[in-house]
Structures are given as C-alpha cells and as structure tokens.
Sequence to fold (1041 residues):
Amino acid sequence: MRKFLLFSIVIFTGIIFTGRLFYLQVYDVSAVVQSENNAVKAVYDYPQRGRIYDRNNELLVTNQPSYDLMVIPKDVKPFDTLALCRLINVEKERLLKSLNKARVYSPRLASPIITAMTKKEFALLGEQMRKFPGFYIQNRSLRDYQIDFGANFLGYISEANQADIKKDKYYRMNDLLGRQGVEQSYEDILRGTKGVKYLQKDKFNRTIGSFKNGALDTLPQSGNDIQLTIDATLQAYGESLMVNKRGGIVALEPATGEILALVAAPNYDPADLVGRKRSKNYTKMYYDSITRPLYDRTLKGEYPPGSPFKALTALIALEEGVMGLKENVYCRGGYNYGGRKPLGCHHHRSPVQMVTGLAYSCNSYFATAYRRTINKFKTPQEGMDRWKEHLESFGLGTYTGHDLPSGRKGFIPDSKFYDRSYQYFWGPTTNISNAIGQGEVLMTPMQMVNFTAAIANRGYFYKPHIIKNIKGRDSIPSEYTEKQQTTISPKHFEPIVEGMHGVYTFPGGTANFLQVPGIDICGKTGTAENKTKIDGKTVQLTDHSVFIAFAPKDDPKIAIAVFVENGFWGSRYGGRIASVMIEKYLKGEVTQKHLEKWLLEHSLEEEYAKPYSGEPFRINQ
Amino acid sequence: MRSRFSKSLNFDWVLLVLFFALVGIGWVNIYSATYDETSTRAFFDFSNLYTKQLFWIILGIVLIIFILSLEAKFFERFASVIYIGSLLSLVGLFIFGSTISGATSWYNIGPASLQPSEFAKFATALALAKYLSDIQTDIKTLQGQLRAFLIIVLPALIIIPQPDPGSALVYAAFFFPLYREGLAGVYLFLAFSIVSLFVLTLAVGPVIVAAAVLLITGLLFLKNKKKRPSKSLYLGVIIVSALFAFSVQYIFDNVFEQRHRDRFNIVLGKTADTKDIGYNTYQSEIAIGNGGWTGRGFLQGTQTKGGFVPEQQTDYIFSTVGEEWGFLGSSLVLILFMALILRVIILSEKQKNQFSRIYGYSVAGILFVHFAINIGMVTGLLPTIGIPLPFFSYGGSSLWGFTILLFIFLKLDSNRANEW
Fold:
C-alpha cells in the first residue's frame, strides 16, 4: 500500500489533466472564437463603388474622395486649438469634447474627430496638418452626383447598422451600403468586394505584424459599373414639370420594359444625402409627413386609377365576348342600376360604341360592359374572380416584379373581399364603380404604365426594369427578358388602341386639344375622385389628374403614366405632361411650347394646403 | 575492474532521455513565448530570454557532469552541511536579497540573479534522507516525527515571509517519503479530511458540510454497531469537523485577504472574473483552448504572439504548449512528466540503500507537486499559485535546482550496484 500511494496519485492526476485538456482544447470550442477576438484584427480595404450611367452612357453617379480627421490621443502635443477649429469649422467646445471622447475610448487607438469632409473642406486643412501632431487624415470614398435629380431611383449610401450586419455577414459596423433605389437593388454589384488584411494584435491592442504572414489576406475588387435604362434628359425634364406638384410620371419602352423615366414628386437633390449633411437632411425629410419627399409615389403611391381603367374593362368584356364592337349603348348623363342614385356621366355624344365609348370616356358604356362580364357567370363570385385573373395578368394587384427595392401591390378585389364586406349578398351593381377605375381598385403609377405598355404591345409586356447593363458582365437578370403574356388575345387590342387614339383625334375626344403634330399618340384621361380624413371626418378632395398614353400608335416607343394628385381632370395636368414628355422623348425637343409654359407656370401648392388650412374649402374649381 | 569513469556511465538512461526531452521541448516553447517578430536582435544576443535560457541549459549540462563525477557517498556525507548552507542562504536574503516582482527571493550576482529557494529543495531532501536513514531514527515515534517535520518546515518557514507561499507549499511534497518510510496512515487520512473539509466548506458552506459529516458518521456508526464502536470517538469526529468547517468559513472571511479569497472563488466558480485576478487563468485557458487537436503550430499561437498570457515563459509556459501543439502535444508533455516521475518512483523502490530511496521519493514528490500545482493552475483547476513547471519554465535557478535534484538521484541510483 505504502509503495503505491504516490504512484497512483501521479497516474490519477495525469488522467484528470488529460481530461481537462480534452475539455479545453477539443470539447469546448469557445476559446478559439475568444482568441480571434483577442488577438487578430481584420483591417478592411474598401474598393471603389461602381459608377452609374444612364441609357445614353451619360455619367450620373461617380465617387469622390472624402476625408476623415482622425486622432491618436497619446500622440497629440499641445497645438493651436483655435487654428484647428477655424480650419475644420467647428466650435472649440465641440473639438475639446471630441478629443476627450477619443481619449476615453483609447489613448492608443485612432478615433474620428470630423468625418466625411469633402475635397473642398479638406483643401484648407491638408497643408496645415503637420502643425497638429497626433492628427491624421483618413481617406474614404463618397458618392459624387453629376445630376441633381433622380434621387428616388438612385437611392443613397449610409452606414450599415446592426440589422444589416445580422442579415448579411459581409458587413461590419460602419461599412457603407446602398439604401433605396439602384444603390440597394444592385448593392452586390456596385459595392465590389472589400479586401481584408489580418493583423496580429498584442495585449495592448497594438498591431505587431501580419497574421499567418498574410496567407488569409485578400485584395479588394472594385464594384462593377451599371447602366440604367433611364433617359437622363427625359427624367430631368419630367422632374422640372413636376415642380410644385405631387405625384409621379413613369415612362417605359414597351418593347423591352425598360424604365425611361421615373419621376416622383416632390423629390430631392441626391447630393443632400452625402457626407456630413446626410443625417441632418435625412431627418428633415423623414419627418416631413406632408410632402413626404422620401416617399416614392411612382412605386408606392396606391391610387384609384380612374378612367384609364376603362381600357381594361373593355378588354375583359371583349375577351369574355359580352360586348359587340358595334353595339350601341345609350347614355343620358348617367347609368341607372336598381333604382339607386345613377352612376353619373358627363356630356358627350350618344349612343356610343366600343371605340367612341373609350374616346369619350362614357361611364354608362363601361358600367354595362362590367356588369355583363360579371353576370356572364353563374354567380357573381365566379365572375369577380375571373375578372381579377385577367387583371392580374397585367401585373395588377400584385408586385410588378421591377428591380427597385420598394413597391406596393395596389389592390384588385376578389369575391372573398366582397363576401366579407357584404355577407355573400352582392352583385355587379354593388361594386359598379370598379368598371371605371374607382371603387376598390387601387394601382401604383408603375402598374398603370405597365398595363399601358401591355396595350401598346397588343397583349404582352416585359417586367419593368431599370437595369440596362451590368458592365463587365454584359447581361441583366433573365427575368427581365422573359415576355409576360396577358390573358387577352391580341386581336381584342386593336379597337382599344383605336379608342385611345380617338381620345386625341376625335372631335370631342377628351384629350383632343393635346395633339402633337407628327406623332400618333394614343391615350386615356382619368379623373379620379379621392377622399381624405380631416379630424376623423371623411372629406372629398379635388380629383386626381390621371393620364396614360403611348406613342407612336403603330410602333410604340414610349408608354407613359402620369399621376398628379388633386390636379382635377385628366387632361388638365396629366394629359399635358404626357404630351410634352412624349414629344421630348421622340423628337428631342418640345414644339408645343404653350403646354410646357402652362405646366411650368401652374402650381398645386395652394390646392395641397387646403386640407391643412383648418377652414372649409371648395374642391374641383 | 572497471574504471571509475565507465562506472559513472552506468546510470539510468531512461531518466536521462526523459530529462533532455523535457528540457528540449521546454526550450522550444520558451523560444516561442519570448520570440519577437519585430526584433532585429541576433540569435546569440543575451537580451533574448531564449538565448539566456539556452545558456542556462548548457551550464546545467556542465553541472550534470560535475555531479556525476562526484563520489555517490559525498551527498550522504555532506547532506547536513548542504542543508545548513542552504538555510543560511535563505536567511541571508533578509539582508542581501533583492526584490523581484514583490518577493525578496533573489541574490543579484552580476547580470544574473539566483533564487536560493530553488536549491533548498534538494538540500532539504538530502537532509531528510540522511536523518530518516539514520539507524537511530524511528519515524513511528513522536520525537522522530517532530524532528523530521522540523527539517522540512524550517526552510518553508523562512521562505513564506519573503513572501513566496507557493514555493513554501512545495515542502508538503515531503509527506510522500515520510509516508513511504512508515508515517502512520492516520496522518494521511487527517490531511485528506482537512483538505476536503476546507474545499467543501468554501464550496457549499459550513452548514451543509456539518450536516453531511453528521449523516456519514451516523451511517458508519450504525453500520458498525455490532462492533460496539466508541460513541465518544464518533461524537468527537462530528464536533471537530463541524467546528473546523465553521472556523474555515470564519478564517476565510476574516483572516484571508481579498486577493486570496478571489483566487479560491474563481476556481470554485463562484465568481466569473476575466479581467483582474482571473485574467491570467482566463487568458491561459483561452490560449490552451485555441490549440484544438493539433495546435496552431510553432510560432503561430495568436495568444502567445500577442502576449496575452502574463508570465507565459515562466509559470504559464504550459499554455504555449497547449496553444501551439494542441491536445496531442500537451498530452505528450503530460506523459513525459508522468513517465519521469513514475520512473523515479520505480527506481527508488529498487534502492537497497535507505538514503537513496528516501531521497528518490523526495525527488518524485517534489517533481509531482510542482507538476500538479502548475498544470492545475494553468488549466484553471487550481487557484493561482505561482510555482514553475520543472525543466520547462524560464529561469536558471529553477532549471539548475531541478537538474541538481534529479541528477543527485541519478548518481545515487548508478551507485546501486556498489551497495550491499
């Protein structure tokens, strides 16, 4: 026994130690993570962000160097505080506060004093830097906008936050990433790949050399440039027309689905969200709940489409075979259904047929067509759902699938919706206003232009997209080159196109005065009633001015949808804008100077102020 | 008739190989722990710690040759002299000693410094072996126990106030030779009970410990009832244990300083401290854990390179092994140490001469206590007690102390054939 005590204790201890080592080294892996945090520092090298061009290769967005003033507190020697304050244009107290903060953070590590100085701000400071030991300048790259429009589809750059980092492991705190617009949609392409250098740290957090001799380090790869489908000239023109108005203009090339212009009003100068002024400007716009400049009305604004919807009502009626082309419908200033207040109409020639009905925008005609469509089926439920199917094939009531990060579905009601609202007791007359694009139907301007393009193409469309080319790859996502067929056979489109042509050409056509010599435009006016709530009371506001158009009639090069909030009747703002935009795009210049002049001179600010005035006001005047 | 030289080559090669393996591996790890990538110093610059250590190793080999060339009987004959000289060198520290990191444990000799407590261990071992092997000594008598105890405790008492309680603790190692030579088993039982009661009290509190003692003793009493056990003995055990448990709590709370309390609490897992006192252990565990199965590779340990583990070349050298050589490498080192200690025990048992056997057991005990406390501390199983890992830790005194300790035994063992 005495011989074996020490012997067995040694063996016992050895076993315990081996077990402990196994636990620490093999079983519990947290130490590896901990040690990487401890001892290895990753330093990132950020590549140049890809540039953005328009469809004619005009440079829209490039990069500018930006400069951060950094400080290593322990290296700071007494310096002329006031001189530095003057150079960087901050008060002394703020400078001292930043310095103190940096010292508290770490005397050995660099902290920023001023971030994102532009070249101009830096120019003064640069040559004086040697007077301020402990301070140095760190370069970064910021966006440099060559244009002062298009902020809604360009988006902006800001620092990654916790949520971004959680979503994508690529990002680290304070990395820059694209938000909104193409900066967000094509972030992966524009950002490139950052390079990384792993450095070995010591216990004081100082760098003592490269980690594993740089075996894991990578070089940065610059982002690819992208070309947008936007026509910068048209876009700029559109934005200038929309000054003092709210709403949107969307123009597409029907043959490809390329977005030529995406004008959201009001908009802002993209340069406002660059560098030091970004946060201040962003906050200001973010809290502007009245004009909502950050709210892209072209993609997110869900409006009742109004009369342009009649084109769809007509197409569905033709496809379902419930209206004859030559069939007369008499209209005496309204459409009577079931003894209730008639659905009103305006003065026009009567009777009307399909083509003239569209040209004169007769409510009675389309109410008839709608009612027959629904009644064709055994139950209104069946009819309603069939109707919705047709509309969905035009990209309505669903996402259009465009390549910008924001967007809404709009709304196309189905039978379930009315079953819920009316406890199964309803028919086509219950929701007869759907026939003329009022009622429950909602669309975004993007959806309106999309169905316009489908009509222009006589039956198909391509998903609207803003990407024309990714340089270096010379391709775009394949979903944008796939033809989307509607459920309406091509032969039914010709009368609709004729009717839309009549809107311009027929005497008494609703946009007759907007004709542009030399261009065969097809269009459709819309005057959309709308309501808002003031102090809990529903109040009707001045109608929205809506207009859709495409041109030329036989070989459409452009489809356009214009939506001007509270612009009253369709041809007033919407029609004028559509005409000059089409002419601008097709001819390169505007000959209809009187239209242009009228648009530039008229403002709707007064109209928009009415609901906020707190006083009773009159509408539609 | 063999020459004296060839006789001196007649030693245990296994021990020799183990010794050089440990010293060699130890130096490689010191090199890694003290290597500075950014340094432009030449290899043979003595401001490199690893160069210094290499120098101590070479001088250590000279020392080995010297020891092996001495007459084996020399150590037995001069044991008392060496012991007294060693005691004097320890006492002298109070007058001539210089203070390094809080402990007055060093003599400054030119550019180097010498730590006499490292040499007191083999001196004490020699003295104890000499005393116990004396024909007149009987370890079974109280007088014999007291004298042996005095030999052991004297150097420890001088070392404690330096202050270097870690080095003093090592003298507990002499319990092993005493026990081997016939110290009553009750001491072993007592020592074990005291340590367990101490740790348990700190871990779960005195009330539970007292209750547990009552329960266990009561059950034992009932089980042995037929043998008519002494009631007073059982009652005494219960009362003394309970008193001990409560006084441990009292001493812990009122006599110990906060830093001591902290060290215990960290090991017992009562406080999770990673910044102040627990920093060393925490960083050391991270470094070892970072090694994984096969380690980060020589000079590739990120914790080691970053110098996160304090005192990594001395007391925490094993964390370098752990990080750079992984589970496989550090297990190998454990096996080498165990092989060395077990080999010393086996050889001790073979000794015909009582002096050699007692000395051998002392060597094994000292090596074991150092090994167990050091690895236990580095892997976070024991509180922070700063003692070096034999043959591994940086430092000339420690290396030489252990070299002399081991090689005196090697010499004594080689002389085994001449004994009868």
